[in-house]
Amino acid sequence: MTWYGSAKPQRPEDPTTPMPASGPGGGAPGGRAGSSGHDYGPPMPQAPGDYAPASSRRSTKPRVNAARLWTGGLVSALIAAGLAIVAYLVVHGIFNLPMLGVRTDGGAVSASMAGYAVGAGVAALLATGVMHLLMLGTPRPFFYFGWIGGLCTVIAVLIPLVTTQHWDVKGATAAANLVLGIAITVLVQGTAHTAIQYPNRQPYPPAG
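Structure (tokenized):
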């Protein structure tokens, strides 16, 4: 039984009038409509980048410029070879002392200038490779490389000291190895610092 006046008369819908996009609640287009057709107001604001496509996101993680790193490693190898030649000329040419080398079986031999220079260059290239691996896979590459470079330098200093040669010969070779070890470590670390690229950093302006 229907009581007259208890319900509001409803106006028939005009079939020619399009319904609002947000439902019968008359909300603005683009609002959030539920399953019952009610409008729940405008969409909630989203934090920038929450639902951004992957192509629009820019990574802020530093990257390694391998070309610059290895170019600097080659230059460091040349500098190390030059320092080795200078050390050989000072030890052997001025003080007339042999430069000690190590054979594969651990015995001490008199190293030549070319062999000493090539060994220093190869050591610099190996140090560059170790630095590259540390930069790609470790959280603190320069800290770890400092330890590795320091340990290798200490080993290079101790090797001639444990031989049975005279102390002046052993001391001269150990001093030369110490200088080369420190130089290679510093050169490779400096090159690695310049090989880091930050995406948000502006490039340096051209000189002049």
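The radius of gyration is 36 Å. DSSP finds four helices and four strands in the chain.
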